Amino acid sequence: MKTLYGKFVIITMLVMVGSMCIGFLATNTYYHQVVKAKNDAKNVKIAQDIAIYIEKAKPQDLDNYLATLGDIGYQIYVTTGEEERFFGGQYRDKTLPLSVVELVLGGEIYHGMRDFPKETFVTGFFANELINTIGVPFRYNEQSYALFIRPDIRLLFSEVHTILAGLILVMAILSLLAMLLFAKALIRPITKLTVATHQLAHEKFDTPLDIERADEIGQLAKSFTIMTEKLQENDRIRKEFISNVSHDFQSPLLNIHGYVELLKNPLLAEKERREYATIIELETKRLSTLTKQLLLLTSLDQSTRMIKRKPYRLDEQLKETIRKYRWQIEEAQLQLTYKMEQITYGGDAELLQNVWDNLLTNAIKYNKEHGQIYINLQEKASSIDILIEDSGIGMTPEQLLKVYERFYRIDTSRTKQGTGLGLAIVREIIELHEGTIRMVSTINAGTKIYIQFPKLL
């Protein structure tokens, strides 16, 4: 059977049969190693007591006495070497070597139970054979006798033993049925999970999974539901991502194509030609920036990416970034001030440069005319803190919640240059450095960006 339930049934049966076999072998070994000798000694004592009683009491009717002993649960064989008589239960095998009879008649004790051959599947305790007896000598009316005796196993099994055997049988059957029902109940949610997994493989994320359990299977079902929700969200983000990428590539390509067609006009004035060429250049740069950012995001998304940490002066990197964008700051008529401590930080300078580029260009792009930008860098006991503050247009609480989403733009009209990937890249890089980023913003009052990196020991 290929089903888990079928395998469970087979394994259960094998375990039960195996347990019975191992239990039987263990019991058999215990009988041969421990019980057998004790049983032999006990029956020797009984046989000797019988022989002593016969010799002392000299019962008038020896056959009647021995028949009485046979009726109360013994199999008895008495012989003088020439005459023989049986009392009690019948022996299955009455074979007894003559040497054994002569041994007992000579005054020795025969330990047939103790010396009975060791057998794996039928122990000597149940072997109904004459050689599996105890033999003792006794004298009666000046005649030597050999008495061979063993308990009658059939009479030893009383009503109590029958009840116990029935109890064991009923317990075994009920245990088997209970295990099968439990297995069915255990496997039913797994079957549901299998069906849901097949549905999930075909991108059917709305498959209901009604498994309410507090055990490991319940936890698995809960984790599966969470995974389904995340996959559904990832699918939505993926489709939205493809849509945004298509739009962001299509728009500049259409603009480039349109202006190239206009440039083909030989009667086009020089001023218009330069204007169209400038637009084509801007759109080309936009495509180039988008491509680079997509490649960077792809690189950052790889779980195996390792950042290249090296100690470098973080304050000098920030100052160099400010100098790089000085012309944009002056062109936008903004006032930039900063306060920076000399700090050496062990990080990936190339990746972190993307962070400062994005945050500073955003502070310039979304600022007000004659606005301000303030940058603060300071070292604390266990962290390095950076603050980038502007007096720009700010954001609403709803916009703050979405600001790290890829391709999300506050400027929904997309009149400002940008790809909507900058802050997503910023957060990815900061988290790779085990840092945190937090934004506080108010409409028409500006935005504060708090960045914190843990100090490396």
Structure at a glance:
The chain has helices at 4-57, 62-71, 98-105, 112-115, 153-156, 159-201, 216-263, 270-301, 314-324, 326-331, 349-365, 397-402, 422-432; strands spanning 74-79, 84-88, 110-111, 134-140, 143-151, 310-313, 335-340, 344-347, 372-379, 383-390, 436-442, 446-454. With 457 residues, the chain is α+β, with helices and mostly antiparallel strands.
Task: Describe the structure in your own words.
- With about 450 residues, the chain is of the alpha+beta class.
- Helix content is about 55%, strand content about 15%.
- It is built from 13 helices and twelve strands.
- The protein has helices spanning about 5-55, 60-70, 100-105, 110-115, 155, 160-200, 215-265, 270-300, 315-325, 325-330, 350-365, 395-400, 420-430, and strands at about 75-80, 85-90, 110, 135-140, 145-150, 310-315, 335-340, 345, 370-380, 385-390, 435-440, 445-455.
- The strands form three sheets. The protein has a five-stranded antiparallel beta sheet, sandwiched between helices. A five-stranded mixed beta sheet has the order 7-9-10-12-11, with helices on one face. A two-stranded antiparallel sheet has the order 6-8.
- Helix 7 packs antiparallel against helix 8 (about 270-300), helix 8 runs parallel beside helix 13 (about 420-430) and helix 11 (about 350-365) packs antiparallel against helix 13.
- The longest helix has about 55 residues, at about 5-55.
- It is rod-shaped.
- The two termini are about 60 Å apart.
- The model is unreliable at about 410-415 (pLDDT under 50).
